[in-house]
């Protein structure tokens, strides 16, 4: 079971529509692995040179103005941003990069639909709050490095000793993160159901099964 | 209860539901390409599983293949060692699991969303998925089609199902007759400008109205393709005689099977009084050619309009506007017509079909690509499109005008293969995303129709298509 409490430093990205091409540029999609993308997270903003898969972060020219290159944000675990985070390309590599960097939660006023789904497959929790709540959290984080505490069971974000915002997320999705469940295993428990459905379909819509390559 | 087309497709494929959470939806067709599949195949191996239903899967390499391949090129010929591994890996995975692939040497290889329909693998009423967000393209055939992540690719391979929650319904009615020089690309860019890149989030958008009915399948695909740029992972259009004619010509179904299927396909439309959560009505006769000025597809304006300034947007958007203008190098430009272009790209899953190439070729009129343009490339979406264009002599028109005539692939739509912008180069592009770095590090993308892109190639600048 994953620790149901996420506590960490909040990195703020005060920008709408951060697309998955910004989160991880296409160059790195050439990898055939599922891990090792953390050094390339937000590559275009994080480095001054153009990156390649075989490059090592420490040897590259960094943009020291960029938040993830500044202490203590190099250890951020929570990302706070605005509207429509993760829009665009379906690349799951975007979530892999956030996860590999160390992010465990992303807070935004809305997410791209495909990105949102991908998060739950990789133990990164996407949290949707209202725009007013997001504005308030940005204010809180503006002056100095801030820690939030996110309770997955209570579904709330504590941003100081007394105050918190609650958030909504589907139980079955949250369950996947808390219990590290694998979708394929869960679905294959319904193997007989799928087989029966397919058999009916074969009879009713035969053209779908009639295709010769 | 009256149902929308999306509701009907959902119900038709529903294996199991838990109303409050997620449902299991049966998947009829699964397209695969080299970039988002290797980790999924690895997952299958790890779990010691085989694909649930081999004949539902079709694969082709498209994202990182070079487009100047010429004859006798195979996967081993790819110079980029990392890209080569991915294409070779797709070959290996398809061979070892028994999945049908149109590989890099096939004359039917192409962009997955172009070859699926033209080879008849996309049939009306199907559920279609692919590890690529532009899978919404296939919604043009009355399909429930959507992009998925790699974990879901593995899930579909292993179970033939997708575990998802139902979307809301949104309807966009396009009525009227467009002005000359205005294409389906302009119409969909106009919609994205209007509702924003999050406007369709959480919704399936059904495109309807007299304008949609009048369109060819190619134009319908362009519109559904960019539904994702309006935030909707599903875009769809009802089945009509245009759909059936296309399918009859492109599928291998026997006459009797086609006839039987058609009876069902004709029911694939929203009921008259079906309820949509959101409805938008747009008169297309007022729409001018649309071009993006910024770094998000919603940053779109009429080709002759002023580029927005801080006074034109609300205060919350000042920062976004400033960042986009700086990235695009627009500090001193009032309109898009002031800009000088370096490159032109005609291609991508949005605009690389035969109709797009005809459109682009039609405005060349024996003229030459401007001396200001470093390179103008035309990349047909598939081997079939390429052959058709060559049979019509379109390749000669492009080549004689100074365009480069390439081999099929995603090409300069995304900086993953050798077709990339150099830093600060400005490109007139028929693709779908103008994100920072999308066409190459620090490259500047302006999205537009094939017609406007071809005119920009000839003039080096954006001009009025009616002039």
TrEMBL record, chain A:
* UniProt entry keywords in alphabetical sequence: Amino-acid biosynthesis, Branched-chain amino acid biosynthesis, Leucine biosynthesis, Lyase
For this chain, one GO molecular function annotation is:
3-isopropylmalate dehydratase activity
Output the InterPro entries linked to this UniProt entry: 3-IsopropMal_deHydase_ssu, Aconitase/3IPM_dehydase_swvl, AconitaseA/IPMdHydase_ssu_swvl, IPMI_Swivel, LeuD
Aconitase A/isopropylmalate dehydratase small subunit swivel domain ranges (all copies):
7-130
Keyword Cell cycle (UniProt): no
What's an example GO cellular component term for this entry? 3-isopropylmalate dehydratase complex
- Gene Ontology biological process terms from the UniProt entry: L-leucine biosynthetic process
One Pfam entry for this protein is Aconitase_C
Its pathway, per UniProt, is: Amino-acid biosynthesis; L-leucine biosynthesis; L-leucine from 3-methyl-2-oxobutanoate: step 2/4
Q: Which domain of life is it from?
A: Bacteria
The reactions it catalyses are: (2R,3S)-3-isopropylmalate = (2S)-2-isopropylmalate
Q: Which CDD domains match?
A: IPMI_Swivel
| Top EC category | lyase
Q: What is its EC number?
A: 4.2.1.33
Check the record and name the PANTHER family matching this protein.
3-ISOPROPYLMALATE DEHYDRATASE SMALL SUBUNIT, 3-ISOPROPYLMALATE DEHYDRATASE SMALL SUBUNIT 2-RELATED-RELATED
Its annotated function is as follows:
Catalyzes the isomerization between 2-isopropylmalate and 3-isopropylmalate, via the formation of 2-isopropylmaleate.
Q: What subunit structure does UniProt give? A: Heterodimer of LeuC and LeuD.
Family membership noted in the UniProt record: Belongs to the LeuD family. LeuD type 1 subfamily.
By its UniProt entry, which NCBIfam families does this protein fall under?
Answer: leuD, PRK01641.1
Listed name of the protein: 3-isopropylmalate dehydratase small subunit
Name the source organism.
SAR86 cluster bacterium SAR86E
Q: State the encoding gene.
A: leuD
Automatic annotation (TrEMBL), chain B:
Q: Name one Pfam family in it.
A: Aconitase
Q: In which pathway does it act?
A: Amino-acid biosynthesis; L-leucine biosynthesis; L-leucine from 3-methyl-2-oxobutanoate: step 2/4
Q: Name one GO molecular function term.
A: metal ion binding
TM spans, by residue? Answer: none
Keywords assigned by UniProt?
4Fe-4S, Amino-acid biosynthesis, Branched-chain amino acid biosynthesis, Iron, Iron-sulfur, Leucine biosynthesis, Lyase, Metal-binding
- Sorted alphabetically, which HAMAP family does this protein's record hold? LeuC_type1 (MF_01026)
The protein's name: 3-isopropylmalate dehydratase large subunit
Gene that this sequence comes from: leuC
